[in-house]
Amino acid sequence: MFASRLIPALRAPLRQAALRRGYADVADGKLALSLVLPHQSIYSSSGVYSVNIPASSGDMNIYANHVPVVEALNPGVIEVIEDSGSQGKKWFISAGFATVHANNSLTINAVEAYPLDKISPENVRAGLADAQRVLSSNAPDAEKEEANIEIEVYQSLQHALSQK
Prior knowledge:
Blueprint: H1 2-20, E1 31-37, E2 40-48, E3 50-55, E4 58-63, E5 69-73, E6 76-81, E7 89-93, E8 96-101, E9 105-110, E10 113-115, H2 121-135, H3 141-162
Parallel strand pairs: 1-9
Antiparallel strand pairs: 1-2, 3-4, 3-6, 5-8, 6-7, 7-10, 8-9
């Protein structure tokens, strides 16, 4: 009952904020990107043209003035396009969250991120084979669950490398 009263009460302020936002809010047309790992910041409120993310609800392309949203990220490629028409920089992430804020900024918190061009296809194939061996062995259930996660990540890596 409380939630049914609270949600309509939140909609009005959010709708008003959305109506106030306009394309003039961003003078340079850039999105402020922060791509943060536990041990490093790759981008820190840097102005970029767009960012493609592997959201759990489907791949998304985020531009300036995107509607605010929070998305869980699947293993996959984050592509940062710094200027219109430029080649994107690509990082493979294993998991994380992306938050598009109302102030025209995007924060991506990732567990790990690696430049896609630095990943060896041979190492990916070997890692996938090792994880599949563990999964088909008599290993404890906990090890098999870890192997399942590794297989998902390695398969996502293989797909990303084939799309390069």
